[in-house]
Amino acid sequence: MNQVATPKFGIGAPVRRKEDAAFISGKGHYTDDLKVAGAAHAVVLRSPLAFAKFTLEGVDDARAMDGVQLILTAADIEGTNSIPCKAVLRQLDGTKHWVPHREVLCTDTARFVGDALAFIVADTVEQARAAMEMIEVDFEDVDPAIGTEAALEGGAPLVWPEHGSNEAFHIGMGNKDAMEEAFQEAHHVTKIKVINNRLVSNAIEPRACIGEYDGESGRYTLTTGTQGGHGMRDLIAKNILNVDPKDIRVVTPDVGGGFGTKMFTYLEYPLCLIAAKRLGHPVKWLQERTEHFMSDAHGRDNVSTAELALDENGKMIGLKVHVLANMGAYLHEFGPGIPQVGITMTPGLYDIPATWVEATGVYTNTVPVDAFRGAGRPEALYLMERLADKAAHEMGMDPAEFRRKSFIPDAALPYTTALGRMYDTGSFGAHLTKALDEIHYSTFAEREAESSAKGLYRGVGLSTYVEACAFAGGEEAKLELNKNGSVTLLIGTQSNGQGHATAYGQVIAEHLGLQLDQVEMVQGDTDRVATGGGTGGSRSIPIGMPSVKAASETLVKKIKEIASEKLEVGVGDLTLEDGQVRVVGTDQQVSLVDVAGSQPDTLSAAEKVMQDECTYPNGTHVCEVEIDPETGKTDVVNYVIVDDFGVTVNPMLLAGQVHGGAGQAISQALCENTVYDETGQLLSASFMDYHVARADDLPNFDFSTSNVPSTTNAMGIKGAGEAGSIGAAPAVMNAVQYALRKNAGVEHIDMPATPVAVWTAIQDAQS
């Protein structure tokens, strides 16, 4: 049998990450690793109450303490005391919703536990903390609004009394008349209500920042872990400090995970810059883990209801959805946009001709909510896939066959959904079939019997998903040929551990005839990299790679034109191999070093390939669990993923992204629980109380692809960074629901299905 050789580099090559050697040997350089001479240290005084009027006492005494250099309160930063919301929506009534004013430092009212009251700078962290403890805060406690549904009830305390309601916004889309007609004609209607639990992202590296100011140039430098510094620079400059963006440089060193949370501009960043300017030397702030729980944007937190109309054959004919999206105490940077994007994906892979969805934003006295891995799409698909399983059960149908009846047919693609999403390519039945075969779905009953014999409940669950990601736009890639024959890529996407240097590098190396270590990537510096859209929405490879490829081709063309003159041959007779430009079929050659050295200026090429539409990765997750009814503990014992990611750039990197996303979603489904009490205290503010999945909570994933290249992306790539987080949670919870319903009569359970929650559900159902 003929074997196709795997390419060393280029598209499809399983290249190991070049970044890993430094990371696993402790040679990474994160923000806190940077030791800046003369830097002072800052801490933030935060509110211990969820809703309170306050005054600060003893500030002058704290300022006089040993080592204290500066204390900033709201009164000290007038004119720079506003953090904007960048996502303002058009509501159903045609108006744009009201946006509350969010202060960098609260003037007289705190609206969640962790809201910032003062910024203290001292010679050492210990001195700053001592001064913080010297400040007395006189609180007038106000009853808080806690709970997504409770905040909308009559008589609930108002987070913003001047607004007159805890409803932040009300949006919707679809055809309401068609939906109502479909429900009138329905043979059966399935209803469900699910809670999508609030999450804390918990990247391995908490946030940190260093602020610097150069009095001679009048320029600021902010060093911090980001998901892209250009947007952060512009927001700080235009909306907070009121300076020209060119007067701020944002530098991003290595970043220990982002997941959406490090995309945003937090108050510590402008405060460090303000303090650095006033003091005349750098100011550093380092976040503690509990501060991350208390102040960084949370994710998810939806309460959703849905109804599905079915015909007599079990075909979906109508869908009605209402999402209550907890926004927290303020509208965070992109917060309102998360449910807006999410509800557009509600129909999933199904041909549902009559759909109507609404979303209501809700103010509560809690940490604001914004994008977390998947950003709205996991919430929407979780609702749809829990609903699909319940409908299949009520119709007495196999969950897989029930889904097939309503899949968008291959022949109908490209297909525009009732909510305006245009799925370009795919074969949805194909990846479902492959996943079922891989997990041996037809013999599940045998494994179920084996588990039962051990006194365990076994369940199987599946989910099919589609995601909108790599949104329309482009990302400029610039390549420079260095004098030593190596190549430098400058690009404005920002790696947070995904392996961008490897992925981009393998394509550049293939085109330029280089080794991977001869390709350097420069990112995370707004002075060196002219523009950048950052990393988010699974955009870096689908949006960045076509530009990298185009820039590589342009640079190769320039190199060949120069070499052709030196070698006195036609451009078409040249090839680039091993750092040489060679005449095909001869021993004539000229090195890239010679080509670079022959030019007075650096030989470079910049390209920006634009994309007009999203990519739509899709796939199937199938999960088997075992539940111990005596303890309530759930073990994931079998897990298969089959995805359509279009063209695979690097299968090793791809598998890592899918495993990581699925692991986070399993953690949400079975472990993570953000808990506020009725007074607004965050009870789960540390790893002692907040269970993130450990290694033994996660399965060995069986991952493969069933790819159909995208037609909206120049290289056929579909985004992959968030897909695992979309497909996994409903698959796990459908498996848990199957096991509990069949063995214990439990009709419904929400995330997280912790041992206590599962055990309690079993006891309640059997009592």
UniProtKB/TrEMBL annotation:
SMART domains: Ald_Xan_dh_C. InterPro entries: Ald_Oxase/Xan_DH_a/b, Ald_Oxase/Xan_DH_a/b_sf, Ald_Oxase/xanthine_DH-like, AldOxase/xan_DH_MoCoBD1, AldOxase/xan_DH_MoCoBD2, AldOxase/xan_DH_Mopterin-bd_sf. Residues 25-143 form the Aldehyde oxidase/xanthine dehydrogenase a/b hammerhead domain. Keywords: Molybdenum, Oxidoreductase. Gene3D superfamilies: Aldehyde oxidase/xanthine dehydrogenase, a/b hammerhead, Aldehyde oxidase/xanthine dehydrogenase, molybdopterin binding domain. It comes from the Bacteria. SUPFAM superfamilies: CO dehydrogenase molybdoprotein N-domain-like, Molybdenum cofactor-binding domain. It holds the Pfam family MoCoBD_1. The keyword Oxidoreductase applies. This is Xanthine dehydrogenase, molybdenum binding subunit apoprotein.
